Amino acid sequence: MTDIPRVDFNGKVAFVTGAGSGVGRATALAFAKAGASVAAVDINEVALNETAAIIRDAGGKVLAITCDVTKGEQVKGALDKTIEAFGRLDAAHNNAGIEQPAQPIGDISEELWDRIISVNLKSVFLCMKYQIEIMLKQGSGAIVNTASGAGVLAIRNQSSYCASKFGVVAASKVAALEYAEKGIRVNAICPGIIDTPMISRYTNDTDEGRAFMIAQEPIGRMGRPEEIAGTVLWLCSDAAGFVTGHAMIVDGGQTAGI
Ligand code: NAI
User: Fold this and answer.
1) Structural domain contains residue 111
2) Among 21, 103, 186, 225, which residue's Cβ finds the most Cβ atoms within 10 Å?
């Protein structure tokens, strides 16, 4: 009988952005626990060093790289450092992102629009651009880009965030088509409401705010960052070898009725 491939990253190298907090931290930890050497990337050096310390304390291998993912030369530099330290790149989770304050489109400033698109969407382009260069030389690699339920569903007062996340889904699918023959898989993940510092900020960390978010979740609770990390690892693993160009919804049923 043929063995089913396992979610195992021993001897592999993973690159995670937004690794200082929330979903990115959980994914960096999960990759390290699954045996990968992890390049952990974030703009927030203090938070990033905390993530790196957690991984090292648990016996994992990690390189902390402070980087603004909206800047092409910094993203290229982070990937150069990854190759210098670990020699290859097998899995990438392009996940750094920021929230948009709730506002109708007519009230959004040009600066805010540019900022949201730059951090949430341009960063994914820049990361894929330089990751694919490395993966093409290897003839293999898997990329997962963090989109959102807001990448498949229009949400009132979230036009720039939705535009950025619909864009992440589109860029992921197009890249999947372009590089499928070269052994590179590209998918997006669309989380529902996940209990992270981003959601604490968005709800002003109030009971009412949290209750409002939970009310949108048929499953009756927010997701945990580890529940997104688990799906990202699966998508990057050999177990998902035939999965590419997919926007995987992991959302407690939030969008099941659409
Ligand atoms: P978070 O705010 O807890 O973590 C985001 C991390 O990204 C932070 O460590 C931050 O320093 C980093 N970051 C921000 N701008 C950066 C930049 N220019 N360069 C490098 N790093 C930067 O947020 P969370 O919740 O973990 O979100 C992660 C991703 O998941 C984001 O793309 C977000 O849009 C997406 N998402 C989150 C959901 C949620 O309910 N928490 C739902 C759906 C998607």
Assistant:
1) yes
2) 186
Q: Decide if 229 is inside a domain.
A: yes
Residue 146 Cα: closest atom of ligand 1: 32
> What are 182-214's pLDDT values in tens digits?
999 999 999 999 999 999 999 999 999 999 999
Distance 96 CA to ligand 1 centre (A): 4
pTM of the model: 0.98
Cα–Cα distance, 17 to 28 (Å, whole number) = 9
Domain that holds residue 143: 13-250
Tally of structural domains, the chain: 1
Q: Is residue 255 part of a domain?
A: no
**What CA–CA distances, in Å, run from 190 to 35, 112, 184?**
25, 23, 20
The set of protein residues with a Cβ atom below 6 angstroms from ligand 1 is 17-18, 20-24, 42-44, 47, 67-70, 95-98, 119-120, 146, 148, 191, 193-194, 196-199
